[in-house]
Amino acid sequence: MNPDLRKERQTASFDTELLTNILDGGADRTRRRRELEALVLNDPDFKHEDVNFLSRSERYELAIKKSALMVMKLREFGIADPDEIYWFKRTCMGTYIAPIDLHYSMFTPTLENQCTVAQREKWLPLARGFQIIGTYAQTEMGHGTHLRGLETTATYDPATQEFIINSPTVTSIKWWPGGLGKTSNHAIVLAQLHTQGQNHGLHAFIVPIRQLGTHEPLPGITVGDIGPKFGYDEMDNGYLKMDNFRIPRENMLMKFAKVEPDGTYVKPLSDKLTYGTMVFIRSIIVGDAARSLARACTIAIRYSAVRHQSELKPGEPEPQILDYQTQQYRLFPLLAAAYAFHFVGAYMKDTYRRITADINDGDLREMPELHALSAGLKAFSSWIANAGIEECRMACGGHGYSRCSGLPDIYVNFTPSCTYEGENTVMMLQTARFLIKSYTQVSSGQLVSGMVSYLNDLPGQRIQPQQVGARPATLHINNPASLVEAYKLRASRLVEFAAKNLQAELNRRRSKEDAWNRTSVDLVRASEAHCHYGVVKLFTAKISEIGDPATRAVVNNLCLLFALHGISKHSGDFLQGGILTDAQITQVNQRVKELLALIRPNAVALVDSFDFSDLFLGSVLGRYDGNVYENMFEWSKKSPLNKTQVHRSFHKHLKPMQAKL
């Protein structure tokens, strides 16, 4: 064990085990997670090769091998709970991306939520038994986030009781779905439903794409891999072109909408019901943002405790770089954000499950808020995590740029989440639609509920700016609940500002669409403020649930840092809105620096509490034992370029050049 890390762990003011239990949702869940992880860590079949020294084809093949092994082991150990599957899968794959990810995360949940009872009985045993391996084919070459623009058609033929699935243009070719290129033999395809001469919009269909047994593409199906990407080397993101490919009528997912044998269309209770899988995935991305940022923070903070550099005082030993305030300022707000997103992710998952149960009972009242919340928080958390992972890489200096740090892989594998399941700016604009609608309701005298209930206070806030100035006297910068109020005021101010600007554009006789576009920057800012308020509110609510005083104190400091750092970064909003004064902003900035010093002694213990195995972390710099330099040297020796002392290019190119000069 590196002596610096040993010392950091010995001087922590709280018990990391208690905080790990809180993050896992209880001591029993921590125990069970570790049991499942041990099954993998002690299994020689799962000893990982370093992917950094493999070609893309080798990485894909190894990921398939591990995926197949994982499925067999899940069956052998009887693991069926979704959380337990996730823990086991995460440990099995280490830093690998699983080509069968979409089978678990989108294909199977869509079957569970959008099939009739008869369809569930037919398809779910096949999916759960991996007789069929599926993906979710929504995105096309020409359209992604704008779902109504998708061009793939499903035309019903009553004579044969079949749907004819067709890709009518180059831009309609399905493009990007994970696992589509080489792995899947079925896809849930989203297509425009045409029956009796009418287009009824997007619906989901189960489309077989490869022959069971031989895995050859079926006649009328053109399918393959889209080629190398920024990252995600193990994933066979694919293309799918369907040429008037026929499927039985029963392959349309018909829990909500259906087509009768004669072609009569029966519409759903709500056209938003089919978006359930996307809402589910967006809520999962918030948790992914937390985990990816937590991994990056773990690597950067442990390495910053091991790395000694430069001089704070002449003649004294080189300090740990974690002792520099600038390093703390780079990393600790990101650590606080990782904790915040962890708690928000858990809240989102619980909310999704609760509201899905309501939807299944026919209660759709909370659907609009769930859609808006999942879209906004997906964007908010993935933007911050994405920038934060890169910040962690840069905070590790030159060694952060090496693939051995694990940080480049975390970055390239997380960054697509800013785009998939809804491009982030578009997601923020979807949240804005809900905010403007809620604002309009309040303006007309109706009350709104849920996370937007702060808008109910708006009519009483329409007072002169000089009166607003009295409000900051109530701010207590050491009280998270007081900071929640400040964020609430910022959100309501920015929502009102965007709504009034939108109305002003409409008053200039602009069309609704044109007015919306001309106000879209303000609308995104309003959505960001709304999401920021939501995260601070949920983080603050978590503190009161923590019983142990020492643990509560350290989480309270993280919550304060998250909230105050946000105020510092967006001080213009708080000043312009008359929410805070200049003097209070100065106080906030000072308190942020004090919190860095308070968090510093617990920084290593706080990342240890995430309880990531070295296998899952996949980093030489972030190793639990801190033995960085010896292992970095050993890692470099494995480079394929080091297989021979003299590379063949010397004799082939350099030596002839030298002879000629």
Mean pLDDT reading: 92
Structural class computed from helices and strand pairing: alpha+beta
Tell me, what's the shape?
globular
- What is the number of strand segments? 11
Low-confidence stretches: 461-470
**Alpha-carbon distance between the two ends:** 53 Å
Secondary-structure map:
Elements: H1 3-10, H2 16-24, H3 27-41, H4 56-77, H5 82-93, H6 101-114, H7 117-128, E1 134-137, E2 153-157, E3 162-166, E4 174-175, E5 186-195, E6 198-208, E7 221-225, E8 238-242, E9 245-248, E10 258-259, E11 265-266, H8 276-306, H9 325-360, H10 367-395, H11 397-400, H12 407-414, H13 424-443, H14 458-461, H15 465-468, H16 480-507, H17 512-518, H18 520-543, H19 549-569, H20 571-576, H21 582-599, H22 603-608, H23 614-617, H24 628-637, H25 648-660
Parallel strand pairs: 1-5, 2-5
Antiparallel strand pairs: 2-3, 3-9, 4-8, 5-6, 7-8, 10-11
Helix pairs in contact: 2-3, 3-5, 4-5, 6-7, 6-8, 8-9, 8-10, 8-12, 9-10, 9-18, 9-19, 9-21, 10-12, 10-13, 10-18, 13-16, 13-18, 16-17, 16-18, 16-19, 18-19, 19-21
Highlighted features:
55% helix; 661 residues; three-stranded antiparallel sheet; alpha+beta; globular; six-stranded mixed sheet
Give a brief description.
The protein has 661 residues and is α+β, with helices and mostly antiparallel strands.
Describe the 3D structure.
With 661 residues, this protein is α+β, with helices and mostly antiparallel strands. It is built from 25 helices and eleven strands. Strands 1, 2, 3, 5, 6 and 9 form a six-stranded mixed β-sheet that branches. Strand 2 (153-157) and strand 3 form a beta hairpin. The longest helix has 36 residues, at 325-360. It is globular and about 90 Å long. The two termini are 53 Å apart.
